[in-house]
Every structure is written in C-alpha cells, then in structure tokens.
Design brief:
Number of strands: 15
Strand content: 25-35%
Helix content: 25-40%
Structural class: alpha+beta
Largest sheet: 8 strands, antiparallel
Distance between the termini: 69 Å
Length: 329
C-alpha cells in the first residue's frame, strides 16, 4: 500500500478483516458530522475499491454437467444442495443436455471446456448409467490443478490423456454426503453435489475417502484414426449439438497429411456411402443446403451441410466408420 495515507491503510485493513457491508458504512456515516459526511463517503468508496483490489479474490466456481435434461427439478435440486453448503459459490452449467447415458459425450465436453477454466475449478459431472452399482464415486485432481467429482466410468479419459491426473480419492466419507439414507438412484443429489461443494469451499479434498491408484481409473476404449498408404480410416463419434454436423476422431493435422487443399473436392466414404465433398474454411463457403468438409473449433475434421443437418440429410447415425483416400497425384 505504498503511497496511501496511513489512516486510509488502516481503514482498508479493517474492511478486509470485517468485510464491511453497506449497513456498516451507513453506521460510520451516521456518527459523523454533516460537514464531514461527504468527504467520509468518498473515502469509504475509495477504500472499498482498494480493499477489493488488495484481496484479489473471486467466488469459487463449480462447473456442473449432467444428462438430466431440464424438464424436471433434478438440476435445481443439485444446485440447491451445493448452495446450501457454499452459498456464495458460482455454478456454471456446462450442459444438462448430454446425450442420455453417453459417457463419451461427457468426456468430450469435459475435454473441450476444461482448458478455459483456471486451476482450482471444481467440475461436478453426473453422467452415471450404472448409478447405485459397484462403480466408484471419486474426486480426482488433474496436473493443471482442477478437481473432478464424478463416477469412475471413463469420463476422465480424454482429460487424463491431455492434462494428466495427479491423484484420485474414492468418495466414502458420509460426512460429505447428504443424509444417512442415500438414494440408490440419485447420487447427483446425495453424493456428487455435496462433495463438489465441500471441495469448492476449500476443505481438504483428500478427506473424502481413501486414495486409489491413478492407474486403476476406468478408461474408455477409444480407437485412434489409422493412416496407411491408401488414406485414413477414422470414425464419426457424435453429432454437433442441434446442428447435425458430424464430429470425428480425425485430427486436422492427420487429415491435412492426405494432401488436400481448401477448395478441392475430397472423396469420402461415410458408413459405406461414397461421396465427393468440398473442403472449405467455413459454412458459407458453399451454397445453402450443400455439404462441406471443414476443420472444427476443436481442431478436428468435420462434416456439415450449410444451414442444414448432415446427419439427417445423409442418414448418418454415429458411431460409423469414415474413410478418406489420399490425393491422387
């Protein structure tokens, strides 16, 4: 606080300790003489701004994702559980429209979103087809310093491949759960939401239960794209939300190794259907209703119809095989 008068430094330290509210500021003003109130008010406003700048703290963030949908009260109940434990937490909804039971979609969305959140963020994920079974509930910490509260069913596969997992603990501490009688079908409310809030509140996350080996995590069995002399064999793994674009496991770098340039027609076989489609930069590079090939925002080869649904127009339902031949010289 170099350069700030001593009396103002004292005020700032007091405000940081006591978290001065508007009510306490009014109390100070009411005890001052009328002539001094204007000056004192200005000082309080200035000191409040400086106090905030000194602490540099923001509310902790929980990123919440489920396949619950939003037609009933499930998501609101889980949010209520988290707020009851940590009222000032920020809850960001990643999605509640994940394809029901699709662990792969959940893993993809986690992979796509986590780079845009800082260390310390807590991700609570409830895509849990085998809820109530012997599958484990876990808390994991990535090497980027983010926390994941979720079922051990493969949801962490892609994040682990990119970021690495530092440690994992199984959730067994009933003191971090809701109630003594847990539902066998709503662990989102009874286990994952309260545990996520306790972690976000800054409690020692290792107290959630015993440590388990990172190597024992359940992982999805994902096939990588395969290159050979003929071309590349890959897979359409999903559609892009409501738009019907095809999401693939083919990296842009591998596709470009085939030798195609933007503007060229590319021979593609999708689910046994052969077609030639233009490789372009963005949707509007072709006429409305025409198909296109492009590199999506995640850096993967993708297929779309300008202002239409590729999946519907061509009858593609993932997962299906994709083959692209090399450029013919």
């Amino acid at each position: 606080m170099h350069g700030i008068p001593v009396f103002l430094q004292t005020m700032i330290r007091t405000m940081n300790r006591t978290k001065m509210t508007a009510g306490s500021a009014r109390t100070i003003l009411s005890s001052a003489g009328n002539a001094r109130k204007g000056v004192l008010l200005a000082l309080i406003v200035f000191a409040t701004a400086l106090a905030g700048a000194q602490t540099g703290k923001y509310p902790q963030t929980i990123v919440f994702m489920t396949d619950f949908g939003v037609v009933d009260d499930s998501v609101a109940i889980c949010r209520g559980v988290m707020y009851s434990i940590m009222p000032d937490v920020r809850i960001a909804d990643l999605s509640h429209e994940v394809t029901p039971f699709s662990i792969l979609d959940g893993a993809r969305f986690l992979y796509g979103a986590t780079p845009y959140y800082p260390a310390g963020t807590v991700f609570v994920v409830v895509i849990d087809p085998t809820v109530g079974s012997t599958r484990k509930a876990i808390v994991a910490r990535s090497k980027r310093g983010q926390y994941f509260v979720l079922p051990d069913n493969g949801l962490l596969t892609l994040v682990e491949q990119r970021d690495g997992i530092e440690a994992v603990h199984e959730v067994t501490n009933t003191g971090w759960m809701i109630g003594t009688k847990l539902s066998s079908t709503f662990h989102g409310r009874d286990i994952f939401s309260p545990v996520g809030a306790h972690v976000a509140r800054g409690e020692d996350w290792t107290k959630v239960g015993p440590e388990m080996p990172v190597a024992s995590l359940v992982r999805l069995k994902l096939q990588a794209a395969r290159m050979d002399d003929r071309g590349v064999t890959a897979e359409v793994i999903a559609t892009d939300g409501p738009f019907g674009n095809l999401v693939t496991n083919l990296d842009a770098e591998d596709f470009l190794k085939l030798g195609y340039q933007r503007g060229q027609d590319v021979p593609v076989t999708v689910g046994g259907k052969e077609m030639k489609i233009k490789f372009v930069r963005t949707f509007s590079d072709v006429e409305v209703g025409k198909p296109l090939l492009y590199i999506d925002s995640r850096g993967h080869f993708a297929m779309a119809v300008n202002q239409g649904s590729f999946a519907e127009v061509y009858g593609v339902k993932p997962p299906v095989e994709l083959f692209i031949s090399r450029v013919q010289r």
